[in-house]
Specification:
Blueprint (H helix, E strand, L loop, with lengths): L14 H11 L11 H10 L12 H11 L24 H14 L2 H13 L3 H5 L6 E2 L6 E4 L8 E4 L2 H14 L20 H15 L6 H16 L2 H8 L4 H4 L8 H14 E2 L2 E2 L28
Antiparallel strand pairs: 1-2, 2-3, 4-5
Helix pairs in contact: 2-3, 4-5, 4-8, 5-7, 5-9, 9-10
Length: about 300
């Protein structure tokens, strides 16, 4: 029915609504009368609804859609399984963040720098950043927070930010929105309209290209914020609050990602058994070492979170 490799009709935005229209038109009407495929096709063409390839509807095309809608749904063997741990390409390290900011200072636009700083410094979702209005930046009277009015699940929350980012946002508002109203969009496109997700995604991809990080996307910067924040104090509940997760089970993924204390403990362990470049091997004719190996206590080093 479809060419090899082409996705079936209904898999693209807007096509599901057309299928619903076809199924409604095919239902029995009063008196038991039903529209045939040819009549349905004519009505679809009258309503300017097109096929996947942009062609006019035919009776056979309508028959194919109705036949496929009546087939039982097959179980998806490749059903998405929830991640339990981030991969190395899902987030940036503190060193990579600093390199990105340094590069953007040299070749990037001021708007792109601020968008990058806000995403890394707040962990906002892409849609939440696009929806930011001037009134959502709680920077008055010494406050340092960003108010999310409509987060995931229509939930509201306040995200605390560091004083450095708050100061940069104040300067940004003074330069860009001095005469704007409180409901003006904080970030806009080149025409001055509200920043869309597609435009934001494109900007972040371009930033990645500039710094040599292929496939960089907005959600990777959210992962970066959460990973570095958790690695600093190991406060899972605070990370959960900042991200707006309904359950701590979702936030636990960051507890398994970048753990400075564990790395330092492993480093101390390796140093303790590699004395003078040679492994400490237990002699064959003794049952214990004369002196026990002392593993130094690991100390938590603050992951560079002041961006």
């Amino acid at each position: 029915m479809y060419a090899t490799g082409r996705k079936p009709f209904g898999s693209r935005p807007g096509e599901g609504e057309v299928i619903t229209v076809i199924k409604l038109k095919a239902r029995k009407r009063k008196g038991g009368r039903m529209l045939g495929p040819g009549q349905i096709a004519r009505e679809l063409n009258t309503e300017a609804l097109k096929t996947q390839m942009g062609h006019r509807w035919t009776a056979q095309g309508v028959k194919n859609i109705l036949a496929r809608s009546q087939q039982p749904q097959k179980a998806n063997k490749n059903k998405y399984s929830k991640k339990t741990q981030l991969e190395s390409g899902d987030y940036l390290t503190a060193q990579q963040v600093r390199y990105c900011l340094q590069t953007l200072m040299e070749v990037g636009k001021s708007d792109d720098r601020m968008i990058f700083r806000v995403l890394v410094g707040t962990g906002l979702r892409a849609s939440e950043l696009c929806d930011l209005q001037v009134r959502d930046l709680g920077l008055e009277a010494g406050k340092s927070q960003v108010d999310v009015r409509r987060g995931k699940g229509c939930k509201q929350r306040s995200v605390f930010i560091d004083p450095g980012l708050a100061g940069r946002l104040r300067a940004y508002l003074q330069a860009r929105h001095r005469n704007s109203g409180r409901k003006a969009w904080v970030f806009t496109n080149t025409r001055g309209d509200k920043l869309t997700y597609d435009s934001l995604y494109y900007r972040i991809r371009k930033i990645g290209d500039k710094v040599g990080i292929a496939g960089l996307r907005p959600h990777a910067l959210r992962h970066t914020f959460a990973t570095l924040l958790y690695d600093y104090k190991k406060d899972l509940f605070f990370v959960q609050e900042q991200l707006g997760h309904a359950s701590s089970d979702t936030t636990k993924i960051y507890a398994k990602t970048l753990n400075t204390a564990k790395k330092e403990q492993l480093l101390g362990f390796a140093e303790s058994i590699e004395k003078d470049g040679m492994p400490a091997i237990l002699p064959e004719n003794t049952s214990k070492l004369e002196k026990p190996v002392q593993i130094p206590q690991a100390t938590t080093v603050m992951a560079g979170t002041n961006f």
